[in-house]
């Protein structure tokens, strides 16, 4: 109440032209919000660090120091991944894409990975589009939040976040992660497959 009274008083005392500028800005912001699209995707990532079907391979054995809470792990350990993404938690469920990139043990004392990967979608309405995901994965937290740093195709100019949970362990070497992607993309971004048309317009 107090807040709105103050706002009202401020507006009332504003020179008319400033009020119009403020109104125009507010309308422009509302229009920009209406011109964006929210996309929520959920899929499961299979990180298989050994055995048959391995998709995650350690590239760098960190020179140390040894991690205080993660037996056998060293600061700087770096793994390259090409993990399968599926629509359900089972590896046998329908394929959704691949998560290609790396994670590095970047916590000296905390169990924290720095993740940097591209989600390449291979099915559904976003087949052919990619999402760039980067961020801090504190594996001791139930839910981790990483950033959507951009994308291609339907995810061009995407912003947003990814909620990242450990769904289950299939075996010592096979961890299943649940990823919920919340992305905002400008509504003007062309759907995948519109690339040719856009190129044609540019060539005129
Ligand atoms: C995804 O797109 C590729 C390339 O256009 C195509 O070959 C493939 O069949 C598509 N996959 C699905 C599941 O639609």
Descriptive overview:
The chain has 204 residues and is of the alpha+beta class. It folds into 2 domains: 2-34; 37-186, AOC barrel-like (Beta Barrel), CATH 2.40.480.10. Helices cover 20% and strands 45% of the residues. Strands 1-3-4-5-6-7-8-9 form an 8-stranded antiparallel β-barrel. Strand 4 (95-105) and strand 5 form a beta hairpin. Mean pLDDT is 86; it is low at 1-8 and 195-204.
Please write out the topology.
Layout: H1 2-13, H2 16-34, E1 36-48, E2 56-60, E3 78-86, E4 95-105, E5 112-121, E6 130-138, E7 144-152, E8 159-171, E9 174-186, H3 195-203
Largest sheet: 8 strands, antiparallel, barrel
Strand order of the largest sheet: 1-3-4-5-6-7-8-9
Q: Please indicate the percent range of residues in DSSP E strands (runs of 2 or more).
A: over 45%
CATH level-two architecture of the largest domain? Beta Barrel
Q: How many helical elements?
A: 3
What oligomerization state is this entry in? single chain
Kindly state the number of beta strands: 9
Instruction: Give the overall shape, derived from the CA principal axes.
Output: globular
Question: What is the ordering of alpha helices and beta strands?
Answer: HHEEEEEEEEEH
Bound molecules: 2-acetamido-2-deoxy-beta-D-glucopyranose
Weakly predicted, low-confidence segments: 1-8, 195-204
CATH superfamily of the largest domain: Allene oxide cyclase-like
Structure classification = alpha+beta
Could you tell me the radius of gyration in angstroms?
23 Å
Mean pLDDT: 86
Termini Cα gap: 56 Å
Number of domains: 2
Task: Assign a percent range to the helix content.
Answer: 10-25%
Quickly name the level 1 CATH class of the largest domain. Mainly Beta
The CATH topology label of the largest domain is: AOC barrel-like
Family: Belongs to the plant dirigent protein family.
Pfam family, one: Dirigent
Main location: secreted
Organism: Triticum turgidum subsp. durum (Durum wheat)
């Amino acid at each position: 109440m107090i807040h709105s009274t103050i706002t009202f008083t401020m507006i009332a005392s504003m020179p008319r032209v400033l009020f119009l500028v403020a109104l125009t800005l507010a309308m422009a912001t509302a229009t920009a919000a209406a011109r964006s699209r929210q996309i929520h995707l959920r899929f499961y990532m299979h990180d298989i660090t050994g055995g048959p079907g391995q998709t995650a391979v350690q590239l760098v054995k960190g020179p140390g120091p040894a991690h205080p809470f993660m037996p056998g792990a060293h600061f700087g350990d770096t793994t390259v991944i090409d993990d399968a993404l599926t629509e359900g938690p089972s590896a046998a469920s329908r394929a959704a894409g691949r998560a290609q990139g790396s994670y590095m043990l970047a916590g000296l004392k905390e169990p924290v990975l720095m993740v940097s990967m591209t989600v390449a979608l291979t099915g559904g309405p976003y087949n052919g589009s990619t999402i760039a995901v980067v961020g801090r994965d504190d594996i001791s937290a139930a839910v981790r939040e990483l950033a959507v740093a951009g994308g291609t195709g339907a995810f061009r100019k995407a912003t947003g976040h990814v909620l990242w949970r450990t769904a289950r362990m299939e075996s010592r070497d096979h961890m299943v992660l649940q990823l919920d992607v919340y992305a905002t993309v400008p509504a003007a971004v062309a759907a995948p497959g519109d690339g040719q048309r856009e190129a044609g317009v540019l060539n005129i």
